[in-house]
């Protein structure tokens, strides 16, 4: 249900707010609804931060698993489809006059009913947001580890440079930042972190493809599939689909981002929000396509699942790029964590009747950060995690759930352009959801055979 008005569809902004003083106080405390003074450019860099993350670094690797033809097709089609579904969500945010669907599950409840909407949306959204935060824990730790390795390699005679620090410790170092930042109260309070993260994403993406061009096409480059069996090629292809789906996964927080923008009947929030989305998607294209296509062109099927790992020179540039990644995933972690904090705090305060205090927030958010850190340390399968989560959870919430909601709410005429377009997106998204996790799960199983916990 929306938090700004009663469920009466005839409610408008001129009527009296019927919420009690307690309900107003709670809404003013919860992360999503506590601040509504964001500008359109907040939407731009929040969406860039949410979209461009660990996924962009794996796109050349995904291309090596998909091949030139299928890879380019899936990349471009995904960009078009997700921009369309994002437009749908922006439009549906205030489809009922005087009411705002501030959270993904509230829109789901309007489309499918109070109980069914919760069961359809909340599990998927939690899997996506918690899954992303776990993967970003691993990404941040790996990037810090890469910086350490490069610095030590450059200073081999430095006896103070320890080379055998475990990945687990780097993940803990990365997590320590979030034990502080996670206590920022709402989306607007992390706008500075998000802006820095958005700038970093464009910066390290440019470094990734620029350094690839500088390195040039490798002498032994091979664009064929690297698996030696048909089954291996098929599984790798499916994993590549999941990695692309993971890269286009900003929809899970779009309604929450739009909720921070002020809205009036004369100037609804969808106008500035859409302006920010368009800018964000231009930045996404500038990050994704050059990194994916140039990275694969230069390294072929020998490219690493993190393009920066394949680039080791010039050392100072790759160190800087990895630090940019760290800054970016710090912001991305917070963007995806904020709706989870909102869900947890809503349940505790509205359902379990806890008082909305700073120490309730302090305890719950620290527990969440500790949980994602623990899981990231326990299962640091970077490539496999991207493929599995990308297909299993990201495809529904990004590629086709908005289309299903659109059909359920607006009921376009059968065989009309809107009806056909939505069904094409639904079919494409369902195929991704069914096929992609298979490859990702196999990748995790293969890596797990030789993995020792906390080694």
From TrEMBL:
Q: Provide any one GO MF term from the record.
A: acidic amino acid transmembrane transporter activity
Where does it localize?
Answer: Cell membrane
Determine the domain of life of the protein's source. Answer: Eukaryota
List cellular component terms (GO).
Answer: membrane; plasma membrane
Task: Report TM segments.
Answer: 40-62, 68-87, 167-184, 190-211, 277-299, 319-341, 362-382, 388-410, 422-445
What is the first-listed, main subcellular location in coarse terms?
Answer: membrane
Indicate yes or no for the key word Transport.
yes
What span is annotated as the signal peptide, if there is one? none
**Biological-process GO terms, alphabetical:** amino acid transmembrane transport
Concerning InterPro entries, the annotation shows: AA_transpt_TM
Presence of keyword Transmembrane? yes
Q: Write down the membrane topology.
A: Multi-pass membrane protein
Keywords for the protein's UniProt record, in alphabetical order: Amino-acid transport, Cell membrane, Membrane, Transmembrane, Transmembrane helix, Transport
Taking every annotated instance into account, which residue ranges of this chain make up the domain Amino acid transporter transmembrane?
Answer: 37-439
Family named by the database record: Belongs to the amino acid/polyamine transporter 2 family. Amino acid/auxin permease (AAAP) (TC 2.A.18.2) subfamily.
What this protein is called in its record is Lysine histidine transporter 1-like
Task: Give the originating organism.
Answer: Nicotiana tabacum (Common tobacco)
């Amino acid at each position: 249900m929306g938090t700004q008005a009663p469920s009466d569809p005839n409610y408008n902004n001129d009527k009296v707010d019927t919420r009690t003083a307690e309900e107003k106080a709670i809404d003013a405390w919860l992360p999503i609804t506590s601040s509504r003074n964001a500008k359109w450019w907040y939407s731009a860099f929040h969406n860039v931060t949410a979209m461009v993350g660990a996924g962009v670094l794996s796109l050349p690797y995904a291309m090596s698993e998909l091949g030139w033809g299928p890879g380019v097709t899936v990349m471009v089609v995904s960009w078009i489809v997700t921009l369309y579904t994002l437009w749908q969500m922006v439009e549906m945010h205030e489809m009922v006059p005087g009411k705002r669907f501030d959270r993904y599950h509230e829109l789901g409840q309007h489309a499918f009913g109070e109980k069914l909407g919760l069961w359809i949306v909340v599990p998927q959204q939690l899997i996506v947001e918690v899954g992303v935060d776990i993967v970003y824990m691993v990404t941040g730790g790996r990037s810090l580890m890469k910086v350490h390795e490069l610095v030590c390699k450059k200073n081999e005679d430095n006896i103070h440079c320890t080379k055998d620090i475990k990945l687990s410790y780097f993940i803990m170092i990365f997590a320590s930042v979030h034990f502080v930042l996670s206590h920022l109260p709402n989306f607007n309070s992390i706008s500075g972190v998000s802006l820095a993260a958005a700038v970093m994403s464009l910066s390290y993406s440019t470094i990734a493809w620029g350094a690839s061009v500088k390195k040039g096409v490798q002498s032994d480059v091979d664009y064929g599939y690297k698996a030696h069996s048909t089954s291996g090629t098929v599984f790798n292809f499916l994993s590549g689909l999941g990695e692309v789906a993971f890269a286009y996964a900003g929809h899970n927080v779009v309604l929450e981002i739009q909720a921070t923008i002020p809205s009036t009947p004369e100037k609804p929030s969808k106008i500035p929000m859409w302006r920010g989305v368009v800018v964000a998607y231009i930045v996404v294209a500038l990050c994704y396509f050059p990194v994916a296509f140039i990275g694969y062109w230069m390294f072929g099927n020998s490219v690493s699942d993190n393009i920066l790992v394949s680039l080791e020179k010039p050392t100072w540039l790759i160190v800087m790029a990895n630090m940019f990644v760290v800054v970016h995933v710090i912001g991305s972690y917070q963007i995806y964590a904020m709706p989870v904090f909102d869900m947890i705090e809503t349940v505790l305060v509205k359902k379990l009747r806890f008082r909305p205090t700073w120490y309730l927030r302090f305890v719950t958010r620290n527990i969440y950060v500790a949980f994602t850190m623990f899981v990231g340390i326990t299962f640091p399968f970077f490539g496999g995690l991207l493929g599995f989560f990308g297909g299993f959870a990201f495809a529904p919430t990004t590629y086709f759930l908005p289309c299903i909601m659109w059909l359920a709410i607006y009921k376009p005429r059968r065989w009309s352009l809107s009806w056909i377009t939505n069904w094409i997106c639904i079919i494409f998204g369902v195929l991704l959801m069914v096929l992609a996790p298979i490859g990702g799960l196999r990748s995790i199983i293969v890596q797990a055979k030789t993995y020792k916990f906390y080694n």
